[in-house]
């Protein structure tokens, strides 16, 4: 059974402020929870409707019914389980290899999909501007499908971070060089811009290599690619010859 | 003002069955509606909260207030306008060039994003299995950002269609050839599979070229790419040397 206080706590974790105050977040579904358990995330408590997760010590595991799960879940169709984890301390930034920097990505689904892509392409470090959606937002956690445990994410003042780096800084713009014909290094920072406004003008000034993904459809018609699909194309292009 | 009958009609169009019965669908937002008006879609009626769209004849245009828009909108935060269009007759399949075939794509956001990618990469023809989500679903129309007017989409029995084609048929699998090292033609059919199950076993038998997108992250960890991001990588790879 889940207590009223537990329901109150978990409901609070839907909001960024309460996640910060409690230093807790939650994940749903067997696959995502298993991946977090197997990595370095510290379990606070597991709520499950099934007699599963036998490896989790019984004091940290509560059997609940579907009505109770519905009360604490962020999903319209709840899975079978929900687990509350401690938010780990931010690790040191890995400042070599390919780094993805996100300039105010606001949509949780986009951030989750981007982290999944980073995991696929072996990108170890993601740098987010302070205005980027919180990675512990339940929709982000869900969309990462567990990748959150394998990509190092830091929130920084992006201007300050980029101003001090010695790595080349890549951004995509309408007037950039054709990415398919550019020589792309294995160390560098790739900036992805906000869904509506693209890369902000302050960040644009710090870009050292302007790239473009050529369009093949009717000119002037397709306005833009979704930021997650653009990230997919760019990471594929940086990695294909590595 | 919008009448009760109009509200009933438009609310019905949220469902596939009523779209089929009435042969109507709707789109929301200035950008998407403008793109549909400029292409060959026939306007049934436009509802707008602003005195815009002056080029639309007044008998087909109704000024409504925000409360009325909220009643007919499919969006949680309605835009300023909603337009009902006639569903056009399916055009003949263009059976040359690169064709994308969708084997039971169920998520409207994924289908919309895929159509936007096709538009970007100049893919003129998309073939959907009968189980693929309806392109006139409001969430698909919205996610296409207007691309729906520039990509020819047909719903067919995919097995039958693929069994008769003379074009090479490409699919991505865990055990396929590295897509980055494969010679990719400019004519062919690329199959994208269902979100949960991938390419179905019946369709897999018809594939003539098995490809794979290599993963660069930890082996056996990242289970899969989202179907829209996988489509982005595959289309980029087919088009980059064209």
TrEMBL record, chains A, B:
Annotated SUPFAM superfamilies: alpha/beta knot, L30e-like
Any one Pfam family match given in the protein's UniProt record, by short name: MRM3-like_sub_bind
A GO biological process held by the record: methylation
Domain tRNA/rRNA methyltransferase SpoU type: start-end pairs: 98-235
Alphabetized GO MF terms: RNA binding; RNA methyltransferase activity
Keyword terms of this UniProt record: Methyltransferase, Transferase
Residue span(s) of domain MRM3-like substrate binding: 5-83
Family per record: Belongs to the class IV-like SAM-binding methyltransferase superfamily. RNA methyltransferase TrmH family.
This protein's name: TrmH family RNA methyltransferase
Lineage: Bacteria, Pseudomonadati, Bacteroidota, Flavobacteriia, Flavobacteriales
């Amino acid at each position: 059974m889940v207590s009223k206080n537990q329901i109150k706590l978990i409901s609070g974790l839907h909001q960024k402020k309460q996640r910060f105050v409690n230093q807790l977040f939650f994940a749903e579904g067997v696959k995502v929870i298993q991946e977090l358990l197997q990595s370095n995330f510290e379990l606070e408590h597991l709520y499950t409707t099934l007699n599963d997760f036998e490896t989790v010590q019984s004091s940290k595991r509560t059997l609940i019914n579907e009505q109770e799960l519905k009360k604490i879940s962020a999903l319209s169709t709840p899975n079978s389980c929900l687990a509350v984890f401690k938010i780990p301390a931010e690790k040191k930034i890995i400042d070599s290899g390919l780094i993805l920097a996100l300039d105010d990505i606001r949509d949780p689904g986009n951030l989750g999909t981007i982290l999944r892509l980073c995991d696929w392409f072996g990108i170890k470090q993601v740098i987010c501007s302070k205005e980027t959606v919180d990675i512990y937002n339940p929709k982000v956690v869900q969309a990462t499908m567990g990748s959150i445990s394998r990509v190092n994410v830091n929130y920084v003042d992006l201007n300050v971070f980029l101003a001090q780096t010695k790595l080349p800084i890549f951004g995509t713009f309408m007037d950039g060089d054709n990415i398919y014909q550019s020589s792309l290094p294995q160390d560098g920072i790739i900036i992805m811009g906000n869904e509506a406004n693209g890369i902000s003008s302050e960040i644009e000034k710090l870009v050292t290599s302007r790239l473009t993904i050529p369009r093949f459809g009717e000119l002037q018609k397709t306005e833009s690619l979704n930021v997650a699909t653009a990230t997919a194309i760019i990471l594929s292009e940086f990695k294909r010859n590595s």
